[in-house]
Write a structure and sequence with these properties.
With about 80 residues, the chain is mainly alpha-helical. The chain is about 70% helix and about 0% strand.
C-alpha cells in the first residue's frame, strides 16, 4: 500500500495542477518543456509522489509564478 500524501503534498499538488491548467498547457507540453515524463508530472499533480525541488522550481518558472508565491510554494516542497 502506498503511503498517504501529507496535507502539504496535496496542497502543493493541487496548486501545481491549477497553475498548469491556468497557463493553458497540457501535461505533455509541460513535461516536454521541463524534461520529465508525462506520467511523472501526473503523479506529482495527483500527490502520488512527493515533488522534487528542481521540478517544482522549473514548473513555477514555466508558469510565470511571482517570487512571493514561488517562495511559499517551494516551502511546501
Amino acid at each position: 500500500m502506498a503511503p498517504v500524501p501529507t496535507i502539504r503534498q496535496r496542497r502543493l499538488a493541487a496548486e501545481l495542477k491549477r497553475l498548469r491548467e491556468a497557463s493553458g498547457l497540457t501535461l505533455e507540453q509541460v513535461a516536454d518543456q521541463i524534461g520529465i515524463s508525462r506520467s511523472s508530472l501526473s503523479r506529482v499533480e495527483n500527490a502520488l509522489v512527493g515533488a522534487k525541488l528542481p521540478v517544482v522550481k522549473a514548473l513555477l518558472q514555466l508558469y510565470g509564478v511571482q517570487q512571493g508565491q514561488m517562495d511559499a510554494l517551494i516551502q511546501l516542497t
